[in-house]
């Protein structure tokens, strides 16, 4: 469907001052090249905004049948006919003819002058002949790389553009015939090449291919397989290939193919086979493969007339859109092609319908153009499609910028960004009357038209009957008459983008109240117009770009207004468009006061969607008291259940607390909930009403309030200017209900409402502790312990354990008391958390021998010991943390011995105990030296005790007691003979002989 509007995309027009009748023309940059009938020359005209004047004339070798200009390399390439023989030639350095220089050099492609005259390449026209084995039928130049593609019968020939450095910074151009595409049974009418893509058009068929390059040694097999597929007309069995062309032509029958549209590899079933022949010299290290992109076959359109020439396809074009910021081609023959193609579009047209595809690794139809009259030619630009009929120049909008925007940013259709859809209806902006339109061209902001006023009446033409096939050579063209008065070549200047944009915006206001969709449609067209202009890679930093950016933001604001006011299924788009407009919430509320909520209670869905999301995002913007009260009124009227959430926004911090409390009281009466209760409690704190605060906090259980905080974390914290800020409610909870605060933080973390780092930072800020402070607040430790009890994910478990171990060690080593009373005791943690293990009896025995300075230190020590006794910790990772602990106290010794034991170093642990706490060695041995480690009783502990007793000391009594317990265990576990063997040989054991004999007899009796 095409929307019709009457805008004015065309401004002034100029007549190209040609003395002879123009037969064909082409254009590019700021020039129009005209080949006149019956002349072997090309006239070049330079075009500016105000005037079109002759620039130079280029004498050709033969009569020009077709020509193309390449912006990359700044050269002309033409198919010429001389003595009924057609050939292909390129004209390089043609601008030198403007100085009247008659010097001309003619050479074959690939052959250079070895010793050019001083300054020669700069001062002479260079004609490069490109010999071909078959007559050239059509040509195309790549707008990205400057390569030339030539269409011949049954094949296409690709010439690479080369930039040659002769000497002394003298540059010239040359071409290299590098690739031949053999296309069986095809004679192309039109071809197009761009960035490795090739499009071929026959009478009623279009084929789009992609040429893939790869190193020869890398994929020879793949290349061979692909070639094999190309040589055989094989394809998916679910598609019936079209009927082969009939070899015979008859005047009594018209044979038509079945319409077909195939994408990707399915295009192989079209019956068109492509075989590659690489003949390049400089790129011999590369091999090529063909990837099928699109095949489209049509039936002739006989809706108006019965003429082959008037029903076949026309205007094949490949249009690239470049990524913004990539450099454009440089002037002269030394131009480079660094432009990066963002999106590529393929356009072709039937007489009454045009088709626009976006191509990539696959193709997709994005727009269909329905013409009210039979079209003769069309040209696609990033902003418009220009179409000519016999008497009308028509302008349609294009969806290229919308598709390219999505290629550039796949996440554009989100709450942050938006773009009008590619599928939006096409818009016809203008139909401009011209008499006898024949040909069409375009460059920059100029449309070139060729008119012949006294053309023959189309209804008087004889209708030939013929067979349709892919062979274009059988078409009999009527030669043009020798002289035909009434011709003109026009240069029509497009109006500036900003001017047309303003006109479309003004036009859209006619539909604001009567036709909502038309208003949005026109504003979307204006938005795409500006977006396409901003995608132009030649657009530099300038006042023009600033004006376009300002218009872009303005258009986003207009679209945001439309979607916010009108209740459509796309009302949610008000949010991203308002964000892209750079308008503040205050600006939107102020400009909407006269329309949105102006004494009425009907607010647009889009406006409410925008308002809710903006208030939920903690924008760094404070609404005035008046606007905050206005927002409060809107939610109270339209969506009262969102009122507690809105009041949590920092943007509404200037709202009068009494007014907020009144609104919440009404809501509580109608829709009571825990969210309303918490919002009322927070508001009561703002007005210093502690009685009301306590009343509200006692209405629900702790678990229900935790649920409320989980729904709305902003009751506890805000993000302002990149920093975390605690609310008054969070500060009050820290003083009065720290357990509720910690439980709420754990719930927020478990429900992915907050990260571990963010929670740590919040609790440090809440406790007035700098983020990088050395001392850890107790509330943060309580949070870590509570999170550990809740069994966190494995990804953060070790991190939590390290945090707690490090804290416990620092607290014990520094003897720093906690700033608040810990929420959980060691016993509670052991009973509720599997990561805290039971403390070994020998540790309890050791610690009981030393009186710790305070109870807090004892609890920290117990928690540390319990964690080390638990199953979750890798002890090797703990050792670096133990450095602050000095082993001159029993508490530190217990931790050290515990770690050594967990590592399996029992002998080292026994030595530590015997050195510093021998009274605990038996308790330790009884608990740890079991099973495989029991042998240490007599191989390590017994000899060590005997040795230490022999050397004497103040601890002999303790050691003798330990020895007695050791001998008791050893004598019960070993036979008498083995027992005697483990005793020392120096005779010191004779002192214990009576006791040992007694134990030995006791064992034999049992």
From TrEMBL:
CC annotations in GO: BLOC-2 complex; cytoplasm
Domain BLOC-2 complex member HPS3 C-terminal: 499-1003
Chain intervals with Polar residues compositional bias: 220-229
Region (Disordered): 220-244
Sequence ranges assigned to domain BLOC-2 complex member HPS3 N-terminal in this UniProt record: 3-479
Record-linked InterPro entries: HPS3, HPS3_C, HPS3_N
Primary gene name: HPS3
Protein name: Hermansky-Pudlak syndrome 3 protein isoform X1
PANTHER family given in the database record: BLOC-2 COMPLEX MEMBER HPS3 (PTHR28633:SF1), HERMANSKY-PUDLAK SYNDROME 3 PROTEIN (PTHR28633)
